Every structure is written in structure tokens, then in C-alpha cells.
Amino acid sequence: MPAMSKGACEAKVCELFTKYHKDMVGRGTKHVRTMLSDELLLIEQDGVLTKEEQNILRFDENGRLIKDIRRRLFEAYRNRLEKEIEQVIGGTITFLAFDIQPVNEKIRVIYSVERLG
Questions:
Q1: Cβ atoms of residues 66 and 57 within 8 Å
Q2: Residue boundaries of the structural domains of the chain
Q3: Contact at 8 Å (CB) between 15 and 30?
Q4: Quick check: 30 and 50 in contact, CB under 8 A?
Q5: What is the pLDDT of residues 71-116, one digit of tens each?
Q6: How far is the C-alpha of 107 from the C-alpha of 69, rounded, in Å?
Q7: H or E segment and range at residue 111
Q8: Could you say which architecture CATH assigns to the domain 6-115?
Q9: Closest CA to 63 of 105, 5, 2
Q10: pTM
């Protein structure tokens, strides 16, 4: 089977993140963007908070509780998600940076990757 184009890889990674986000919190994000280069994979998600998290944010202004819960959820799903991503991009993930900004309802995930070929 021929390797996927860059655009097809990016679209498939968006689908994976949408699927895993729904599995984690019960609904998808409003928007997902993926950018893939030879060494980096960047995923940005907008509109990530559930109604409950939006209400919690009113009492936890800097979103520490939400950040902690989301990091733990991401860690619980991380291995399965990364295996699927590696299959899509045809390479290996070597580093992860994860950040959630509850006030802006954004998640950013940055992977360093070693791609085959």
C-alpha cells in the first residue's frame, strides 16, 4: 500500500484526535488542526471544554483542576493513540508536549517524530 500524502496523514490524525476526545469526555471538539513536518506533529484543538468544565472554570479561574484531570485522561489514552498515530505517519514518536488552556478552551499537543523514508 502506498504511503499517505501529508494532507491525508494530517486529516487522519485529526480524525484520531476527535475520536479519542469523544471517548475521553463524551463529545468532540469544535475544531481540530494538524500540521505535520519531517520532525514535528502539531495538533491544536479548539472548543474542548464540556459544559461541566465550563461551570468548574467559573470557580477555578486558572483552570488548575481541569488541567490536572485532562492531563490524567490524556495519559490514560496516550499509548493507544500514539500507536495509531505512528501507523498513520509511518514513523516513531520520540517526544511529547501537552498543554491545555481552559480559559481559551484550547489543547495543543506537540510530538517530535522520526519518520521512515
A1: yes
A2: 6-115
A3: no
A4: no
A5: 999 999 999 999 999 999 999 999 999 999 999 999 999 999 998 7
A6: 13
A7: strand 106-115
A8: 2-Layer Sandwich (3.30)
A9: 105
A10: 0.89
